[in-house]
Amino acid sequence: MTTTPRPGTTVPDHRGRTGLHLTGRDLDRNPRVEVTDVELLAAGWHVLRATTFRYRGDDGSWATQKRETYDRGNGATILLYDPARRTVLLTRQFRYPVYVNDHPDGMLVETAAGLLDDDDAVTAIRREAEEETGVVVTEVQPVFEVYMSPGSVTERLHFFAAAYDGSTRTGDRGGLAEEGEEIEILEYDIDEARKLIRSGGIQDAKTIMLLQWAVLDGPFARG
After folding, report:
1. pTM of the entire predicted model
2. Cα–Cα distance between 136 and 12 in angstroms, integer?
3. Rounded-to-integer distance, Cα 31 and Cα 25, Å
4. Which of 24, 55, 59, 200 is 20 to 30 A from residue 14's alpha carbon, by CA?
5. 24 Ramachandran zone, left/alpha/beta (phi>0; psi -120 to 50)
6. Is the CB of residue 156 less than 8 Å from the CB of residue 147?
């Protein structure tokens, strides 16, 4: 009996990808880890794998472990701030994953963000900032790079900041209609935004991290 290869392995998936079952097999940067098998569980828009590996513990013994990883690619996010008016520009849109996990209405307040796709991080975040907020940024400041959910998600998120001129901004809607995006653009005083963190009005991790950075080490830091 012959079995049909899973799409994304030796035959293309719906996005034309092959070899998705090979990722991780050649890893050798850590001598305590030996990848022995990679199983492709699903290849929808993103990729779910189950990887089996041997791990050498502190006592020198080897143990076999298995982990599922969700690969959605790497991403970037940006805090847009007006230093003169002490404001930040955020977005609000519906996020089903938080809605299904006890968020009141799924309408999450966030910094502009998106996946890199085939672009470098700076190019991608300039694109996302314009698409989601209408703000065209040229000079961006790298802040840090973070693995947001290292227990299961492979994504590395690039954090940026950039100034904008709020006095010339127009419009309160963003996003690409062809991608089904309906994004509300929100402008907050930085102190108001911090209060929303404490009250639960802002619950998105990347947004909280950038707002805290802004008042500790960024454009709104004292001294």
Report:
1. 0.92
2. 37
3. 14
4. 24
5. left
6. yes
